[in-house]
Design brief:
3 helices; elongated; about 90 residues; two-stranded antiparallel ribbon; mainly alpha
Length: about 90
């Protein structure tokens, strides 16, 4: 079952336009827009996780390199999602 956020994204993808042109009064679902919004939502979730990791006051007080690695891994996940789906800023 879809959650509420997916339903909200779906609502943004219905339009009376196709490729910017007004069409025949019928609603059309833009699958490309839907996919893009879902991927951007995934990127935002990953960015929130990265920010959470960065804001932790104490990761491992004895190993600063390990702390930096955690932040870099979070950033790597964000970048891999963007790269995989071709998301541009």
């Amino acid at each position: 079952m879809m959650n509420e956020r997916i339903r909200e994204i779906e609502k943004q993808c219905w339009s009376h336009r196709v490729d910017g042109a007004l069409v025949d009064g019928q609603l059309h679902f833009d699958t490309h827009k839907f996919a893009e919004l879902i991927v951007r939502e995934c990127v935002n979730v990953a960015l929130k996780q990265k920010k959470w990791v960065e804001n932790q006051e104490v990761f491992n007080s004895n190993d600063e390199a390990w702390n930096r690695a955690r932040i870099q891994q979070s950033e790597h996940i964000v970048n891999k999602i963007k790269e995989h789906f071709g998301v541009e800023e």
